[in-house]
Specification:
Elements: E1 3-7, H1 10-19, E2 24-27, H2 44-58, H3 62-74, E3 84-90, H4 93-108, E4 116-122, H5 142-147, E5 150-152, H6 154-167, H7 176-180, H8 189-197, H9 209-217, H10 225-235, H11 243-252, E6 257-260, E7 263-265, H12 267-273, H13 279-282, E8 288-289, E9 292-293, E10 297-300, E11 305-308, H14 309-312
Parallel strand pairs: 1-2, 1-3, 3-4
Antiparallel strand pairs: 4-5, 6-7, 8-9, 10-11
Helix pairs in contact: 2-3, 4-6, 4-8, 9-10, 10-11
Length: about 325
Amino acid sequence: MNILHILNGDATLQLFKQSGLPGDHIVWREVLSDGTLNAEVASEGFWQLRVNFFEKAFKVKEQLYREYTIHEFDKIVTYPNYHEVVLWYEYDLFCQVNYLAIHHWLYQQKAYEQTNFSFVCVGNVDWAKKLMGLGEFAPDQYQALFQKRISLTAVDFEYLSSVWQAYASPTPDTLWPFIHKPKIKFHYLPNALQAHLRRFPSTKNGLNEIENYLLFMGTARLPNRHALIKKALHRHNWYGFGDLQYLLYLERIDPLFESFEPTKLNDLGVSILNRKLDFLTIKPEACYLGGACNLDYRWDPDKNQLIPEQEGS
């Protein structure tokens, strides 16, 4: 059987190669959980926004991005040559958003009319006490994961395309219907989307969930930035972020630290941690979360509700 496997990262690729599963493979190398984007996946405007973000945030040059991401994505166009395409990803926000984009693009091509599609999405497993990523499975376990893959229908593609369009829109509150009335087949998606909404500034002090945790752990006198990020990696598994993404958050709240070796807050950091001041009145730095500007909405942690900024002020 002629199969194309779309993998979520290079760590998965190495394990996949050792698994002995038949078929060709490509790797979807993106970070659509962060940075400016638009809904028209794989359009020239979409790619240019991503090139700009990678250059600014991760110091990745345009040529490298085009080689490792755009040229790799272009291989998906060959899907009609395959009997089946299998998408491999994980439960967290990082993976869920990346794969929403692919599903949206495939839906626009009506790819489901030409090829069979299925997916493997890992998270909960019987033998582990925590959510598991693909990189935590042994190569000989991939065959069992493949055998349990779930077929995708035209209705599924339409649904996931709608979620992507809501995520990429300037009004993130349009995600609520997908959180409150999810499809069982995509049962990890609601938690991932809620994690996304918690990244908007809190009504309490202008920092989001991740920034508040980094600030709180900054009081623990950890030896350095690496130790602080390590704490965040273990705490916020629903985000699925790596070191570089947490470094971006840490750079943003850098003015709240007196030192990082060891970690210690300054007076301003203590005041914001104690909710006596609002960070956005001091450093109202705009960034994009999906298609929305972080300054346009506030997250109310008491009500678990996203509020337009004019209402939250």
